[in-house]
Amino acid sequence: MLFQASLDFVTSILLIATRLAPIFFALPLQAVTSLPLRVRFFLVMAFSVVLVTLLPDTGLNIGSSYELVIALLKEFSVGLALSAAIMAAFSAFSVAGRLIDFQMGLGAATLFNPLSNSQNSLIGTLLTLMGTLIFFLVDGHLALIRGIKQTFVLVPIGGGLKTIGFLEAFLAAGKMFLYGATLAAPVILGLFLIDFVIAVFARTMPQLNPYFVGLPFKIFMGLMLLTLSLNYFSNPIRAIFESIFGNWTKVLVA
């Protein structure tokens, strides 16, 4: 009887870790992505051990290897849906940065990220770091941990998502373009007006080269507009972070 109880305990830890793994391995926070995979693995296992002691007894009963595999697949699908909502929120900063870079004329200028082996935009990297800083300043990491615990209340261990839940996860991932365009809108509109002014000058003064004259001016004005618009980023950024938990609720209770 003692062996059966300990086996259920280990099985619960394994199922919880399967749900947490997509979240922690795909979490786009610099403080997490810079950690080695081995450290993130032990971090997931540590959280799983803590959570299994805090969650109420769900009466989990797995009697065969087939049932265990099905339960693991269900937990992994839940973790993928939850990680999609997180990725959508933080990808909004990258989308906004790429839109601003393209409008400023810095679309070809990129930064190499050795952690992900990818090319990141200049302004996108700046906005992502700013969003990460604000996330920790508003105790978003603590809210994220509480939200993870709440997911096991909405969908107990061994439960799965409905088909409509996966649809909500895809819709949440699509919202990153909306949030990114919202963040970049002030700068893009200002640069559009600057393009109009440069076009008028180029039309009235054909000897003026709009590329060599307008590009440095657009870069300077784009940075100035971005600096001035930072004061208005608080509400959109708050909405982006709140969308994580709102999308989690839609995905899990759908």
UniProtKB/TrEMBL annotation:
Q: Which Pfam families match?
A: Bac_export_1
GO BP annotations of the record are: protein targeting
Q: Where would one find coiled-coil regions in this protein?
A: none
Task: Give the protein family.
Answer: Belongs to the FliR/MopE/SpaR family.
GO cellular component, alphabetical, reads: plasma membrane
Its topology with respect to the membrane? Answer: Multi-pass membrane protein
Which keywords has UniProt assigned to this entry?
Cell membrane, Cell projection, Cilium, Flagellum, Membrane, Transmembrane, Transmembrane helix
Q: Where is the chain membrane-spanning?
A: 6-27, 39-56, 76-100, 121-145, 151-171, 183-205, 211-233
Q: Where in the cell is it found?
A: Cell membrane
**What is the designated name of this protein?**
Flagellar biosynthetic protein FliR
InterPro entries from the UniProt entry: T3SS_IM_R
